[in-house]
Amino acid sequence: MDLSKNCLTFVYRLGYNQNPFFRYTPTKNPIMEATFWLLPIITFLGSLVFIQKLLMKKSEKFRLPPGPPALPVIGNLHQLAAKNMSPHRRLRELARVYGPIMHLRLGEVPTLVVSSAEAAKEVLKNHDVNFANRPKLMVGKILYYNFSDIGLSPYGEYWRQLRKIATLELFTVKRVQSFRHIREEEVSKFIKSLASEAASGSVVNLSDKLFGLLFNITSRIVFSHEGEDQDAFRVFLSNLLDALAGFSIADLYPSIKLLESISGFRKKLQEMIKESDRMLDPIIEEHIYKKRQGKTEEDLVDEIFAAGSETSFSTLEWAMSELLRNPKVMERAQAEVRDAFKKKGITGESSLNELKYLKLVIKETLRLHPVVPLLVPRESIEHCQIHGYDVPPKTRLMVNAFAIATDPQYWEEPEVFKPERFEGSSIDYKGTNFEFIPFGSGRRMCPGIALGVANMELPLAMMLYHFDWKLPAGMKPNDLDMDESSDISVRRKNALRVILTSYASSSGI
Ligand code: HEM
């Protein structure tokens, strides 16, 4: 019996994968999947209860943070899976009951969940070094050839060298600027393609178009090459981001090596390697060939591809969704960009500095829809104390950036999309204002902020300048669903479909 296929089909039937975009990925709720997996093997794991009890005795001398009561073997997985909510929303709910410093056991993994700015500052600033490690997730071991990438490699000399090269050589403002012509060319092609859709008056799948844009920009930046195989890459990215969350059964029970193979996760990752080699090898070979002949433009390392395209794509998709739901904000953003371009003409990225409100729209989108809401998991290196609670070594850390960015303690009307809230405020996403950390903070903070923001500003400005937007079939702004996929990276669950008309004075596409 193909148990793996049956389990996935079951989860699929539960309705967690209704997004036609991502229909090739068998399940979009990894926690449900993990919980489901536990049913047939729970007997096997029962033997662990005894060991666990011994461990619990040992941990009694610690003052662990509060948390919901855990069950033997599965710990708190059932509470996370309850209510069919995305993990970051469910964890926000639990934090409202148990507090901003919460202890959970996910499978056999002790996990610290931090959900306030004060506690985030404590772990990401005051105890930054101690939490600068990443857990040894299977995806890092298999897909990234024994943790050889920046994002998943353990804290130490190797990671420091990679990060230094990335920071000094790849992510400087000058380097990001050197890709300006790529962004301008690709955005111009994108706008032309939207203009032909506008002329036909048909309903446009904006999600597809935006993904294509970010895919092309990132391909050219990373490989100096136009993107191909976009659909396959989209599925690959979706699977990769699932794996990064660390919610696979093998990552929840890392001591039981057998689970890596019987859960089918190892096989899945190996298939992903084959798929990524199939897609990337020809591009890389051509790139090396061109480089030897001195024919390439400056490029970034290939592993950056996933981090770079999906995050900016998702954020743009959310920004357009919020603008469609909030016509007044849309109006103000369009007025600003149209006014600026009318005065100076469309001068590509050099016009962007004037667009103060547009920048606030992006900030507000990152607040309400941080695309990596729990940041990338970290792990404590040695024992430490956080606000008087003990945190043993090898505790997994999740910082709920979403819960913090929607906490009424720091934000007025936190659920309302209101870019004006940042007007005259010095709060920024650079990692020092802990109530707003969509890019994380500290040593492992996202090094790609400048590139990510550059990839979002020009497309957004151009979309707002060239077109007027409405929802299809007489839908009212509030009818637009904002359902989220339930992965580590939070995308729209359903494609964003729109009708657009060309703005009368728009020219120079
Ligand atoms: C909207 C855009 C983006 C968002 C919201 C975002 C968010 C994040 C977050 C939350 C983390 C984890 C930080 C932590 O653990 O504290 C991260 C890590 C990372 N990001 Fe980004 N990111 C974005 C764009 C990019 C881009 C464009 C690149 C590169 C081209 C990039 C490369 C990376 C890398 C390499 C890491 C791992 C850093 C490390 O572990 O040392 N990101 N990002």
Automatic annotation (TrEMBL):
What Gene3D superfamilies is this protein classified in? Cytochrome P450 (1.10.630.10)
Keyword annotations for this protein, in alphabetical order, are: Heme, Iron, Membrane, Metal-binding, Monooxygenase, Oxidoreductase, Transmembrane, Transmembrane helix
Instruction: Name the PROSITE patterns on file.
Output: CYTOCHROME_P450 (PS00086)
**Signal peptide from the UniProt entry:** none
CDD domains associated with the record:
CYP71-like (cd11072)
Q: What is the required cofactor set for this protein?
A: heme
Residues the record lists as binding heme:
446
Indicate yes or no for the key word Membrane: yes
Instruction: Tell me where the transmembrane regions lie.
Output: 34-55
Show the SUPFAM superfamilies listed in the entry: Cytochrome P450
Gene Ontology MF, one: heme binding
- InterPro entries cross-referenced by the UniProt entry: Cyt_P450 (IPR001128), Cyt_P450_CS (IPR017972), Cyt_P450_E_grp-I (IPR002401), Cyt_P450_sf (IPR036396)
Q: Which family does it belong to?
A: Belongs to the cytochrome P450 family.
Q: What is this protein called?
A: Cytochrome P450
Q: Which organism is it from?
A: Carnegiea gigantea
